[in-house]
Amino acid sequence: MHLGVSESMRECEYSQISTRSSTPMETPYKKRTPKKRKWESFPGRNKFYCDGRIMMAKQTGVFYLTLVLILVTCGLFFTFDCPFLAQTLTPVIPVIGGVLFMFVLGTLLRTSFSDPGVLPRATPDEAADLERQIDVANGSTGYRPPPRTKEVVINGQTVKLKYCFTCKIFRPPRASHCSLCDNCVERFDHHCPWVGNCVGRRNYRFFYMFILSLSFLTIFIFAFVITHIILRSHQTGFLNALKDSPASVLEVVVCFFSVWSIVGLSGFHTYLISSNQTTNEDIKGSWSSKRGKDNYNPYSYGNIFTNCCAALCGPLPPSLIDRRGFIQSDTPQLAPPTNGITMYGATQSQQSHMVSESETESVTKTSAFRAPNSFYRPPPLLSSSSKAPSPSS
After folding, report:
1. How far apart are CA 135 and CA 145, in angstroms?
2. Which of 31, 204, 287, 390 could form a disulfide with 297 if both were Cys (CB 3.0 to 4.6 A apart)?
3. What pLDDT was estimated at residue 203?
């Protein structure tokens, strides 16, 4: 009896299988949707090229002006001045000029095309958890939102951590939110339209090498163009020399009006590197003695050489955003910006309704912009007595 029952069940199973497979046209055809990369849904205002390998700011017009000025000036110099100088003086002149030109171009592109140190935004779960921590830490009850700053102690100096309402994180020390790129950038220095990108922790050394080498190249071209005109004027006269090489006049004008700002900018950033400051900190006067006798820069090593080595020769940190990764369907979404408007005082049903609407609007903006090998998380809420790691860490 047992065998008969089992055989009948097998026949039933076989019949069901044959019935479903007898109509192959009824089987729905599943189209494979191409996977979307994370840079295509990046929440910041950035431009991406080469499948996310190149990352720039949205406004890149001034960057192209910088590139054209360098290419045109150097092109005129190598075409009209270098042949005469190499024949009259030494062939080393165009060689040195070519090396400087390639170094300037390489550092410019490296600064403009790289991630300056963008911090990933918080997910809705992380943002909600942070809101609960703020409520508990400040004992917030009622309609008044709690303060959005925390204090940490770095090398004996109290540093404030500010909350970013766009990225939904407490920004790490020295980080700031760029209003043009709409990103929080680690060790934010400034937004430079001439390079078409923010200048932060991951590209500051290349920016400094760019302006420093550009200063040498500008002085080099200016000096040898003047030399070319003087040598030619000894042979044919000053006016004839200008007529024979009109491109030299254009090079002199461009170099004369640009050398002052470039050299001055190089000197200013040399001062910043020697004191381990950023442009943002220097403009705000964060470590100025005018704020008090006990106010000092906690990031300085107290030695100019050590500060320069830390800024220019230290290890380059990895990118915290995985912009070339693929978006997963089960990835949580990014927390939408509130622009300073919090939901304190709203009922639980109103809050859930507001959260559901905001999540629906940001369906395409996922939170998986962290690199897979990155363990970055928003900084925890630290009290004034807690200590942050030293600059060497």
Report:
1. 9
2. 287
3. 95
Average pLDDT value for residue range 168-194 = 94
Residues 110-155 have pLDDT tens digits of 999 999 999 999 888 888 888 787 777 666 555 555 567 888 999 8
Tell me the catalytic residues.
192
Cβ atoms within 10 Å, residue 362: 17
Spatial neighbors of 76 by CB under 8 A, at least 6 apart, are: 247, 248, 250, 251
Q: Tens digits of per-residue pLDDT, 224-242?
A: 999 999 998 888 888 888 8
User: Helix 246-275 to helix 204-236 angle, to the nearest 10 degrees?
Assistant: 150
Number of Cβ within 10 Å of residue 247's Cβ equals 16
The distance from CA 268 to its chain's CA centroid, rounded to whole angstroms, is 21
Cα distances from 296 to residues 275, 276, 382, 388, 393, in angstroms, run 11, 12, 21, 16, 19
| Helices 92-112 and 61-76: angle between axes, nearest 10 degrees | 170
Single pTM value for the model: 0.75
CA separation for the pair 205, 55 (Å, rounded): 17
Confidence of residue 73 (pLDDT cuts 50, 70, 90): very high
The number of beta carbons lying within 10 Å of the beta carbon of residue 64 is: 10
Of 210, 236, 223, the closest CA to residue 112 belongs to 210
Tokens of 293: 């006798």
* Structure-token match 């390489």, residue found: 106
What is the CB neighbour count within 10 angstroms for residue 57?
Answer: 25
List all residues 6 or more positions away from 269 whose beta carbon is below 8 Å from its beta carbon.
207, 208, 211, 279
Pull the structure tokens for residue 316. Answer: 């380059």
